[in-house]
Write a structure and sequence with these properties.
131 residues, rod-shaped, 46% helix
Length: 131
């Protein structure tokens, strides 16, 4: 097993995001087709006779799938805006949602949990407390 750590840029390429959105759209289309009975004989006969009223299951599936694709793509694009460009070249070597390692030099506190020297005790915790 190699020790290569992928960067965020390698993980979140635009083509991958479009692929994820496409998969969500196809899934929504299939669920819509199955739930509207597009594969049943009764629905297909009524469509063939011209007695089916409203949007056909295939048309509804395409509308729902297209809407799902667009919403997913926009949602992923908005989430990509939350990524700091400086983090794009940094390698991911720990779980993203875990707290930073307290012994790392860029964490805001020392290993004991106390503020570093020269730093206010309430730094970053909201408005300064009245002394």
């Amino acid at each position: 097993m190699t020790d290569d750590k992928p960067t965020r840029k390698e993980i979140l390429r635009p083509l991958h995001l479009v692929g994820i959105a496409l998969a969500a759209g196809v899934f929504a289309t299939v669920v819509t087709l199955v739930s509207t009975g597009a594969f049943t004989e009764r629905v297909n006969l009524s469509i063939a006779k011209g007695t089916y009223e409203g949007l056909t299951p295939l048309g509804l599936g395409l509308v729902i799938g297209g809407a799902s694709f667009i919403v997913t793509l926009l949602g992923l694009a908005m989430l990509m805006l939350a990524v700091d460009p400086a983090d794009v070249t940094r390698t991911i070597d720990r779980p993203v949602l875990f707290d930073a390692d307290p012994s790392s030099p860029d964490s805001g506190r020392s290993s004991t949990g106390e503020p570093k020297s020269g730093e206010r005790p309430d730094a970053g915790d909201g408005p300064a407390a009245a002394s």
